[in-house]
Amino acid sequence: MSTVLHAQGLGKRYGKRWALRECTVDIPAGHVVGLVGPNGAGKTTLLKLAGGQLEPTAGDITVLGGRPAGGPAQLARVGFVAQDTPVYAGLSVADHLRLGERLNPRWDAGMARERVARLGLAAAHRVGRLSGGQRAQLALTLGLAKRPELLILDEPVASLDPLARREFMQGLMEATAEHDFSVVLSSHLVSDLERICDFLIVLVDSRVQVAGQTDRLLATHHRLTGPRRDPDRLPADQQVVSARHTDRQSTFVVRTDAPIHDPAWTVTPLSLEDLVLAYMEKRPTDDRRVALEVRG
Fold it and tell me: What is the enclosing helix (H) or strand (E) of 66?
C-alpha cells in the first residue's frame, strides 16, 4: 500500500509551546482523509508541515515519498487550499486562471475553464465582489486544476453558510470521483466529513488520538451501558476511550476487535460524530490509552 504522508515523531514548537508533538501517522494513497479535532489541536500546523510551509522542530515527515516543498517537482504534486481561501480581491476570475497556468506545470486549463463556467463565475468579475462560497469554489478550482497527486484543504468551508458548504463538498466529491488523487481535509464540523471522508484522523491536544479507515473504526468502537463498573474490570482487549458514571450506571466507549458477550452491557454502535467526541473527551492522563498507530 503506497503512502501519501508519513510522519514519525513529528513536532512543531513555537517558543515554549508545542503546536504539534509526537505525531506518528501514515496516510495511505487513494483516500479522502478527514482530519478533525478542536480548535488549537494542531490541525493547521500538521497540514502546513505537509505543505512545506513550516519546518518541523522534531521528527520527520515525507509527502508522496519526498520532502515537503523539496523543489519545483515536489511542489507541483501537492495542492493546498488554506482556511481563508487565498484568492486576490483585486484580480478577476480570468486573472486567477492565467496565474495558475503560469505557476503550475501540470495545469489543466480546460478543466479550470469548464468548472468556472459550470459554477457561473464570470471571467471578468473581480474576486473581491464574489460571495464567500464563490471565492471558496474558485480556490478549489485552482487547487484541482493544478492536477495534484495530493490535495490538502485546511478548513476551507469554516466560514461558509450551510448551502455554500454543501455545494463546496459536492464539488469536491465529484472531483475525487472523476480524477485519481488523494485528499486530506481538516474540519471541526464532523457532518461535513461524514459525507465524503473514508479515512479519519482525530487530533487532540496536539497529538494524534486515533487514525484509520472510517468503516473499520466504526466497526471496532462500541458504546457499553450497564451497571456501574470500574474500567479496570473490563476485559484487557477492550480499550477504554471514554467513560461516564452515575451512582448506578456506567457508560463506556471502547475499542475492540472481539465480540462483546457480557449480558450486563447494552451495546450500541457509534456514529462518526460519537466516535470523534469520545476521543475529544479523552484526557492525556487516561490509564488505558488507545494505541495511536493506524489500523485497518
Answer: none
